[in-house]
Amino acid sequence: MSTSTTETRMHVGGASPYDVVVGHGVLGEVAGMLGDRPQRVAVVHAEPLAGIAERVIATLGDYEVLRIVLPDGEIAKTGAVAIDAWEQLGAAGFTRSDAVVTVGGGATTDMGGFIAATWLRGVPVVHVPTTLLAMVDAAVGGKTGMNTRAGKNLVGSFHEPAGVVVDLDVLGTLAEPELIAGLGEVVKCGFIADPEILALIERCPADALEPRSAELRELVERAIAVKIAVVVGDLKETGGADGHPGREVLNYGHTMAHAIEKATSYRVRHGEAVALGMVYVAELARLAGRLDADTAARHAAALASVGLPVRFGEVDFEVLHDAMRVDKKTRGSQLRFVVLDGLAQPSILAGPTDADLRAAYEHLAGAR
Ligand SMILES: NC(=O)c1ccc[n+]([C@@H]2O[C@H](COP(=O)([O-])OP(=O)(O)OC[C@H]3O[C@@H](n4cnc5c(N)ncnc54)[C@H](O)[C@@H]3O)[C@@H](O)[C@H]2O)c1
Ligand SMILES: O=C(O)C(=O)C[C@@H](O)[C@H](O)[C@H](O)COP(=O)(O)O
Ligand SMILES: [Zn+2]
């Protein structure tokens, strides 16, 4: 195990190109990503991240800084929180030449990104993700959003950041269950696009759980590379070419995951729910004759090896089925799932039978 001192700069092309910088001790990169010198910088964070936010602010020099403190975690993703933040920006006279910096996990980058996307119809935002999950997924690609009573992420917009600063040092204070949850999205990238991710984890799961390991850094960079390749090809999720699902592929496991999150009032972490959702959809694909049994079984084995949950049966299937109907991939009354036809061969399964949907849940619940 070693810690490289070199930073990695990953470029995200497209109409609004930006860089994702990955390394140790790279918080100082934020100022250079803010574009033409803004007068004010709104630093959006939750209370537990005040210390890291302070370290970011210290790198900004003499900018006028406005701190916007959000509730911690998923409860930040509401309309009421957005309105409160808009009022604070209004009171500060925040203009289009000012900028937002988010410091936090995916809930903060989603909500801070949404605030930046909507204030004056869009001001620049730089994300400083502080959880593994936000580093490999939420901070990259421009999806922002919040929840409503009907479900998860039902309101939002695509608003690409001006830059993303991934300082692996901040993972030092992250609780292990949060690190493990982030690995759910990393494993997802392994199954949909980069099997070397799975090989790395399977070789030594303990290294993946070590914040300063070279292995975790490689996993982070590989997962970000998968995300960049997908969003550059299909930023607004309008569809891919040659049968590839396009950006929807990043929703692998998410149809059931979002249903579980909603049904458990977000007690199950997003990354944990994604792990459960992938076990579910792998079995669904197997039952539909799309995926071989070994690759389906590999899901639970890889996920469990790093401590992710692979069994869930505490909610009635009907409740989850109803929640899945409001998924953004649904068309009319037809549920659509991202499935694998083989390792790293994603496609769409539209309208699976009720019997298969139910049987896959019995599998997830450990009943078959
Ligand atoms: N926009 C996207 O593309 C995208 C992608 C994936 C997930 N998401 C969203 O991200 C959210 C989940 O993000 P998450 O898993 O980061 O959870 P989170 O943002 O709720 O953070 C989890 C917890 O970690 C704490 N924390 C964060 N950084 C820390 C640090 N360095 N040290 C100590 N504690 C720290 C937070 O205070 C919080 O309590 C969900 O809302 C999900 O929908 C969005
Ligand atoms: O970036 C994407 O696109 C994703 O789907 C990444 C997912 O990991 C993430 O959870 C996303 O927020 C889910 O998107 P949604 O459109 O289903 O809300
Ligand atoms: Zn996700």
UniProtKB/TrEMBL annotation:
Keywords: Amino-acid biosynthesis, Aromatic amino acid biosynthesis, Cobalt, Cytoplasm, Lyase, Metal-binding, NAD, Nucleotide-binding, Zinc. GO terms for biological process: amino acid biosynthetic process; aromatic amino acid family biosynthetic process; chorismate biosynthetic process. InterPro entries: Dehydroquinate_synthase, DHQ_synth_AroB, DHQ_synth_fam, DHQS/DOIS_N, DHQS_C. Pathway: Metabolic intermediate biosynthesis; chorismate biosynthesis; chorismate from D-erythrose 4-phosphate and phosphoenolpyruvate: step 2/7. Coiled coil: none annotated. Pfam families: DHQ_synthase (PF01761), DHQS_C (PF24621). Its cofactor is Co(2+); Zn(2+); NAD(+). NAD(+) binds at residues 72-77, 106-110, 130-131, 143, 152. Gene3D superfamilies: 3.40.50.1970, Dehydroquinate synthase-like - alpha domain. Residues 68-179 form the 3-dehydroquinate synthase N-terminal domain. One of its GO terms (molecular function) is metal ion binding. Residues 182-330 form the 3-dehydroquinate synthase C-terminal domain. It is found in: Cytoplasm. Catalyzes the conversion of 3-deoxy-D-arabino-heptulosonate 7-phosphate (DAHP) to dehydroquinate (DHQ). Belongs to the sugar phosphate cyclases superfamily. Dehydroquinate synthase family. This is 3-dehydroquinate synthase. It comes from Nocardioides marmoriginsengisoli.
